[in-house]
């Protein structure tokens, strides 16, 4: 079972007198003031929680501090201030030896550039983390083979890394992380070196694996559409600070500031938004239901558009008991497509026959 990850007021400062620099930041100094003194504040007061089984995406432009933040989560970088807790254990209080044990058994990392050993077979690469743990050869090869099969690489165990495509090499890296059965996966721009089609395939692969394995995952990316597609929750970073945390729908519909609003302006909202975000909830639960197609909270934007196109009135959204919990007006749908002029017919108009719930 995956465990909870907590980051509490994390700072990472490079340069002279880092503790003094943290105190300056706490008193209101900004990043540029410190930079003028030759000090780099890479991460400033970062706090968040990742619940068990969640994919938490940290998104930001180059230099925003996201990769530095990730490396503090498994102790590859020591925080200047703050705490990281995983499965109830304060990782920032552990010795180097204890940290190595945690990284070997509880936390796995998937890198951007595959990091495969060219002189080891695919199976040996996938089993490497288990070899570090001292797992006997027969067991580690069995577990590595199972992980490769999960990643769609059954039959490639005896191949060499240079015989694989980029996407297949990244699958080996993912299999290596899964083979250790670690509770926490840290993924640093893991798909950014791949071609767009292969990248989407890897996103699909990760989502499919997550439905089965339910790991706790922290995923770093600079690609907004990737973040929106993968993240159960998303943190947006700018200049070392987390400026907004929320679901993809929260960030798209309620950006915290002008920076986030400008950052998301080119996102394809139709791939992210669902009926739960678009519906008008001013209708009373259990209200009359149109005798026609309905939607659920999870109905996608594209599906809503298709349903709306077949109806002469707004789309009813129902819960598990088939009770109306909201409606999606056609005007709201076409508004997201850039045309605010269309007017939806009311649900009780002559175009929409109404039936009442029993």
From TrEMBL:
One of its GO terms (biological process) is glycine betaine transport. GO terms for cellular component: membrane. Belongs to the ABC transporter superfamily. The keyword Lipoprotein does not apply. InterPro entries: AAA+_ATPase (IPR003593), ABC_osmolyte_uptake_ATP-bind (IPR051921), ABC_transporter-like_ATP-bd (IPR003439), ABC_transporter-like_CS (IPR017871), Gly-betaine_transp_ATP-bd (IPR005892), P-loop_NTPase (IPR027417). Keywords: ATP-binding, CBS domain, Nucleotide-binding, Transport. It comes from Streptomyces cyaneochromogenes. Residues 5-264 form the ABC transporter domain. NCBIfam families: proV. SUPFAM superfamilies: P-loop containing nucleoside triphosphate hydrolases. One of its GO terms (molecular function) is ATP hydrolysis activity. This is Glycine betaine/L-proline ABC transporter ATP-binding protein.
């Amino acid at each position: 079972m995956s465990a909870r990850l907590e980051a509490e007021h994390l700072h990472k400062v490079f340069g002279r007198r880092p503790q003094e620099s943290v105190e300056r930041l706490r008193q209101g100094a900004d990043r540029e003031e410190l930079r003028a003194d030759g000090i780099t504040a890479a991460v400033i007061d970062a706090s968040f929680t990742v619940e068990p089984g969640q994919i938490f995406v940290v998104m930001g432009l180059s230099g925003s501090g996201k990769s530095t933040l990730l490396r503090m989560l498994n102790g590859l970088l020591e925080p200047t201030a703050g705490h990281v807790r995983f499965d109830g254990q304060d990782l920032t209080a552990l010795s180097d030896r204890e940290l190595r044990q945690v990284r070997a058994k509880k936390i796995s990392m998937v890198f951007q550039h595959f990091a495969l050993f060219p002189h080891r077979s695919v199976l040996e690469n996938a089993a490497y983390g288990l070899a570090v743990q001292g797992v006997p050869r027969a067991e580690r090869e069995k577990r590595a083979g199972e992980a490769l099969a999960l990643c769609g690489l059954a039959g490639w165990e005896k191949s060499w890394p240079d015989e694989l495509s980029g996407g297949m090499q990244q699958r080996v890296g993912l299999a290596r992380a899964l083979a250790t059965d670690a509770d926490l996966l840290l993924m640093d721009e893991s798909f950014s070196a791949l071609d767009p089609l292969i990248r989407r395939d890897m996103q699909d692969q990760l989502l499919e694996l997550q439905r089965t394995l339910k790991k706790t995952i922290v995923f770093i990316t600079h690609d907004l559409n990737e973040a929106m597609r993968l993240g159960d929750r998303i943190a947006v970073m700018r200049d070392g600070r987390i400026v907004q945390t929320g679901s993809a729908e929260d960030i798209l519909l309620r950006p915290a500031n002008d920076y986030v609003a400008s950052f998301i302006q080119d996102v394809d909202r139709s791939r992210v938004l669902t009926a739960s975000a678009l519906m008008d909830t001013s209708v009373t639960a259990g209200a009359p239901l149109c005798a026609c197609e309905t939607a659920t909270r999870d109905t996608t934007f594209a599906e809503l558009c298709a349903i709306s196109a077949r109806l002469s009135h707004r789309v009813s959204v129902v819960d598990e008991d088939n009770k109306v919990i909201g409606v999606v007006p056609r005007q709201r749908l076409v508004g997201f497509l850039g045309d605010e002029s269309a007017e939806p017919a009311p649900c009780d108009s002559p175009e929409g026959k109404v039936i009442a719930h029993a």
